[in-house]
UniProtKB/TrEMBL annotation:
It comes from Bradyrhizobium betae. Pfam families: ABC_tran. This is Nitrate/sulfonate/bicarbonate ABC transporter ATP-binding protein. GO terms for molecular function: ATP binding; ATP hydrolysis activity. Involved in beta-(1-->2)glucan export. Transmembrane domains (TMD) form a pore in the inner membrane and the ATP-binding domain (NBD) is responsible for energy generation. The keyword Nucleotide-binding applies.
Length: 284
């Protein structure tokens, strides 16, 4: 009896560890490349595994294929060669078993004639969700981005940062597991951007999201990410990978730390090297 009771917790631990280890990656990019119809080579073959729950950022010089890679992950475009897997399956199973994907574009792309709540409700209407089920989800998503007082406003009555928040609420309302964002805060001032980054890091953590994020900002990349992919152009490819070994969620304390400064310095050097490589068109 004594032996059994001492063995049991170990068994449970082993079971838990196996379950965690067996969690499939959210996305696998398997030698996927992209040649466009006009012959332009957007991406050289890329291999990348995106772990469930990680915050992955793509950064690199203009034209290195960040948006192309993100669109492949969103299945908005297809690879010319190679393939991608979502939770070890093909894209058809996204939307089943509670696995959902949402995309946030650089522009908020709101319907100007519709109030905030109607803009956020849109994806649920596309899914024919009854109003009574949709309404609390819409209110919850708007509250999450701190816009409850503005739910009857029209986009023209909102600041740029507030419009971006509406766009994020519209992505969150579908309760995604995989959130893809292409330079969502690129047009905002630094103070607003930092505020939205703070919110995003908490949201991703609370909701256990897998996030793939594109930015040109070194500070934003280091603050948000668990892993940063530095890309180079001509052809678009992975140049280097930086892991940011800092617990989530993060706060201003991390921004003020010497570790943050050191990561930013190193990333800045890598980006300069990636730009040189891109101009020369050489492989790393
Ligand atoms: N539809 C398309 N047809 C032809 N070429 C394309 C197309 N889309 C992208 N490209 C080319 O593929 C390359 C990668 O483009 P992409 O938009 O992915 O770059 P990016 O890293 O997102 O750049 P930026 O930082 O400027 O947004 C570029 O050379 C671009 O000109
Ligand atoms: Mg782009």
């Amino acid at each position: 009896m004594r032996v059994l009771s001492s063995v049991k917790p170990l068994d449970e631990m082993a079971k838990q560890m196996t379950t965690a280890d067996e969690r499939p990656p959210a996305v696998e990019v398997l030698s996927a490349e992209k040649v466009f119809a006009n012959g332009a080579r957007g991406l050289a073959p890329i291999d990348l595994s995106i772990a469930d729950g990680e915050f992955l950022t793509l950064i690199g010089p203009s034209g290195c294929g960040k948006s192309t890679l993100l669109k492949l992950v969103a299945n908005l475009i297809e690879p010319s060669d190679g393939r991608l897997l979502w939770w070890r399956g093909d894209f058809a199973q996204v939307g089943q078993e509670g696995r959902r994907l949402a995309f946030v574009f650089q522009e908020p792309t709101l319907m100007p004639w519709a109030r905030v709540e109607a803009n956020v409700r849109l994806p649920l209407e596309f899914g024919n969700m009854p109003r009574a089920t949709a309404d609390p989800k819409v209110a919850d998503a708007i509250a999450h981005v701190g816009l409850s007082k503005f739910n009857r406003h029209f986009p023209r009555q909102l600041s740029g940062g507030m419009k971006m928040r509406v766009s994020i609420a519209r992505a969150l309302v579908t309760d995604p597991n995989l959130l893809l964002m292409d330079e969502p805060f690129g047009a905002l001032d630094e103070f607003t951007r930092n505020k939205l980054d703070d919110d995003l890091v908490n949201l991703s953590w609370e909701r256990k999201l897998t996030t793939v994020f594109v930015t040109h900002s070194i500070y934003e990349a280091v603050f948000l990410s668990t892993r940063i992919i530095v890309m180079a152009a001509n052809p678009g490819r992975i140049f280097r990978i930086m892991t940011i070994d800092q617990p989530q969620p993060r706060d201003q304390g991390f921004r003020d730390s010497s570790k943050f400064a050191a990561c930013c310095r190193e990333l800045s050097t890598w980006l300069a090297e990636a730009s040189l490589q891109s101009a020369g068109g050489g492989e790393s």
